[in-house]
UniProtKB/TrEMBL annotation:
SUPFAM superfamilies: Fe-S cluster assembly (FSCA) domain-like, P-loop containing nucleoside triphosphate hydrolases
Protein name per Swiss-Prot or TrEMBL: Iron-sulfur cluster carrier protein
Signal peptide feature range: none
Assembly description: Homodimer.
Amino acid sequence: MSLAPRLLEALATVQDPELRRPITELGMVESAVLADGTAHVKVLLTIAACPMRSTIEADVSAALAALPEVTEVKLELGVMSPAQRAELRESLKSRSIPFSDPSSLTRVIGIASGKGGVGKSSLTANLACAMAADGLRVGLIDADVHGFSIPGLLGIPNAQPTRVDEMILPPVAHGVKVISIGMFVPDNKPVIWRGPMLHRALEQFLTDVHFGDLDVLLLDLPPGTGDIAISVSQLLPGSELVVVTTPQAAAAQVAERAGSIAVQTGQKVVGVIENMSWLVLPDGSTMEVFGAGGGAELAKRLELVLGTEVPLLGQVPLDPMLRAGGDAGVPLVLSHPESPAAAQILAMSRALTRRPRGLAGLKLGVTPV
Ligand SMILES: Nc1ncnc2c1ncn2[C@@H]1O[C@H](COP(=O)(O)OP(=O)(O)OP(=O)(O)O)[C@@H](O)[C@H]1O
């Protein structure tokens, strides 16, 4: 194996599109030789059917061609041997759940609701895209096993994760790394898994899916107070919760149950989102279709039950464009960021990600004298 330093420097600027690391670090560059202005380079793909083959090919050629001493690029693509793949897997994979390590800097936020249909998944998809558009590295786990809808909301209804042996690489949509139970269920069949299987599935997502370094990991939780909520708190003890409700008093009461599970799990409820708060009519007036006050009431009650501050993060109006954005797979915060509903979601995304983080469990790197 021969590796010319100047060529390696150029190749180090090329990232594997799925693993998001320089190809030089991933052991993908087998040889790189410069002879009479011609760069002869062999790059190894992780698997033969690599969906990113042409992207890698184009990026490598462009990076090499940019060197002044290179007049021609001769690129050969090969495939890693099982032993090379095993080495790569070892170098990438942590034995445990990376996000549950006390020194992890990833904020993990579960989005919960009392009942279905309050817009939890739509808001989760929009929040994830808002955070990614703000330059954060965002992962999203669709853990709503009975109603997985995140891939559709993000425009990748049929996306399949790439598998490198036992390692799973999540598809990326609008800059968000997404994994959904729906991606592992053939033909959109309903999932009838019970507690232990759900726990195992979530555990597998958290250990086997290679998200890489993330600033935020969002989880779209199933509505209610089911097994997944308990599993999340066990597998991700530092995770936080946001509770979504509509303004309706009855909905807020059901949501209170979902939020107060945090008393048992020890999770922090970082806020309430009220969705479908009002509808702006053509004459400019507003109509409170589902009543008023549910979000503020829920936040107040959760504060009492949990004994911690629970702010109402925002109120998102009904907006047909939000629904249409979900159907089209382009969330409203990306297609119409100026709309009042998107503006609310963008503000909430910033409020959630710019909070100072607690120092509990973090290594501060200082030694007492
Ligand atoms: N602010 C809004 N304005 C207009 N339509 C909305 C709004 N929020 C959600 N919707 C629509 O309401 C419906 C339910 O939303 P969504 O699927 O996100 O709810 P959910 O709480 O995740 O439900 P489930 O948990 O049952 O999957 C969808 O058709 C969605 O497009």
